[in-house]
Amino acid sequence: MINKYRWYEFVLIYAGLALFLTFILAPFITAFTVSLRPMQSLFSIPYRFLSDNMTFEAYWEMWSSVPLLARYMINSIFISSAITICGLLAIVPAAYAFARFEFSGRTGLLAGFLAVNMVSGAVLIIPLYKVMQQLGVLNTYFAMIVPGTAFVIPTGIWLLRSYLMKIPRELEEAAWVDGAGKLYTMIRVILPIALPGIMVVAIATFIAAYAQQFIFALTFNSVNEFNPLPVGLFQFFGRQTVVWNELMAASLVGILPVLLLYVFLQRYIVAGLTAGAVKE
After folding, report:
1. Is 59 in a helix, a strand, or coil?
2. In this structure, are 124 and 26 located in the same domain?
3. CB proximity list for 259: less than 8 A, separation 6 or greater
4. What are the pLDDT digits (tens) for 24-40?
5. Are residues 78 and 179 located together in one domain of the fold?
6. Residues sharing a CB contact under 8 Å with residue 97, sequence separation 6 or more, in sequence order
7. Structural domain includes residue 280
């Protein structure tokens, strides 16, 4: 039985949580207050966190400042969804193979996937550009989806492999005794059980794809209608000034899809992260 916390332990716990939440929420709170303030009050001296004439006007003006802002948001959701779907098609069977089968070069491949995560996309941007140019797919969604998929697969394999290794092998052996093949066993026996882990990987992949679109879109695409949200937000930076209040408003609106995705699917995240925590 776990003993109750003493009063000073409660103080330390809540103080730590408060400090953690301060660092996590401070950028969002600052962005929200900046979005409510008019431009002339943003650079007042001394700086004031709040002002008397705060309005939601920037949330309306941002649509006229960047007319294709809604299109950019749809593009980001489409590109991230495509990367997530294409990534899962490779991640699920690969993670299952690494979790269940012994084959030559297995350890080396896993180490290679881990090493890929240490390489920034900026390092490979020029070779990737030459490849896309040779394939003739520049200025298309394809040029942004394929590199994004390649960069999320290694992390997804490592995450899902760890989850699949916790599933008892006896379930597969029972299916094999009944005459089921390995592919049938993976699809009909293992994947339904591994759904929480797959959802965690899918959400992590979507968030990563949503966040990494700037460098690929800026390099591989010059058609304005195909740009994702990060490149669209870049248009708020003028040659002389930056429309900070509208930029902050657009940034907060832009993260809503990811936030809503997390809110509605958080039960899968909790189930996937806590699976195997209790030993039976």
Report:
1. helix
2. no
3. none
4. 888 888 889 888 888 87
5. yes
6. 103
7. no
